[in-house]
Design brief:
The chain is α+β, with helices and mostly antiparallel strands. The chain has a single domain, classed as PPM-type phosphatase domain (Phosphatase 2c, domain 1, 4-Layer Sandwich). Helices cover about 40% and strands about 25% of the residues. It contains eight helices and twelve strands. The strands form two sheets. Strands 2, 3, 4, 5, 6, 9 and 10 form a seven-stranded antiparallel beta sheet that branches. A five-stranded antiparallel beta sheet has the order 1-12-11-7-8. Helix 2 runs antiparallel to helix 3 and helix 7 runs antiparallel to helix 8. It comes from Clostridium thailandense.
Length: about 270
């Protein structure tokens, strides 16, 4: 009886060690960098955070909307909610549930804490888990993958222009009508309002390759610098913190009179 029990314990331990070694072999070194400027705005309404844990890596960026400092509060609520839920989550086996429930929690908290003034926030969030990239977003903050010299936009922008593009493709309006529409950059969805629909989630996780770079940025970045300019920086063999600094430095030197808050996070798969 004792020998059978001992044999069973040994088998269980071997399976556990195998599981640990398998997970360890999947772990990759992810370098992280970020940079932020206030631009010509009175307040910084962008919020962001990066978390490295045994479960995985999360980067989250939020761009607040609303006057009287409410945008700043809203974006902080979104980021803090994602950080809190990520840290307390026992595992990341159900990524879609995590993204959806966390977005709804943040939406509810904004509605409860900010009253009387229209406010809200975009969100762009990525999680790297066992060398796979998962992402979710709502609003117009961007998520992109830079791989082998190619800049690949991953998420859609939830703005009126996207709806106009659909109308153009179906032949209902002209290209000129899109360009002249003064409401084209208006958000069609964001976190922090009663009609909040649902956060967009990638259907299939992306297996990361050596040298891949993941970029999260607010509209203050991509409205001020072209993809070509970003590619020239990202293709360099520099650390993410240096790439982030260079991109923001390019924006600063342009000195646009209406420069928005600009925030960028760059993650690089070093292995």
């Amino acid at each position: 009886m004792k020998k059978s029990l001992l044999f069973l314990i040994i088998i269980v331990l071997l399976f556990y060690i195998r599981h640990i070694l398998r997970n360890k072999s999947r772990e990759k070194y992810i370098a992280i960098g970020n940079e932020q400027i206030i631009g010509k705005r009175e307040e910084q309404e962008d919020s962001f955070s990066t978390i490295v844990s045994e479960k995985g890596i999360m980067a989250v960026l939020a761009d607040g909307i609303g006057g009287y400092s409410k945008g700043k509060i809203a974006s902080s609520i979104v980021v803090n909610t994602f950080v809190h839920e990520f840290l307390k989550s026992p595992d990341l086996a159900h990524m879609e549930i995590f993204f959806k429930s966390t977005a709804k929690t943040a939406n509810k908290e904004i509605l409860e804490k900010i009253k009387g003034v229209k406010s809200g926030s975009t969100v762009a969030v990525v999680i790297i888990y066992e060398n796979y990239l998962y992402w979710a977003s709502v609003g117009d903050s961007a998520i992109a993958l830079f791989r082998k010299g190619e800049f690949i936009n991953l998420n859609k922008k939830h703005i009126f222009e996207s709806l106009l593009q659909e109308q153009y493709l179906s032949g209902k309006i002209s290209k000129e009508a899109i360009l002249k529409n003064p409401m084209k950059k208006r958000l069609t969805d964001y976190i922090g309002h009663d009609e909040f629909k649902e956060i967009e989630i990638n259907k299939y996780p992306i297996e990361l390759k050596q040298g891949d770079k993941i970029i999260l940025c607010s509209d203050g970045v991509y409205n001020s610098i072209s993809e070509f300019e970003m590619e020239k920086v990202l293709e360099k063999n520099v650390e993410p913190f240096k790439a982030s600094e260079e991109i923001i430095d390019i924006i600063n030197k342009k000195n646009y009179p209406k420069q928005d808050n600009a925030t960028i996070i760059v993650l690089k798969n070093e292995d």
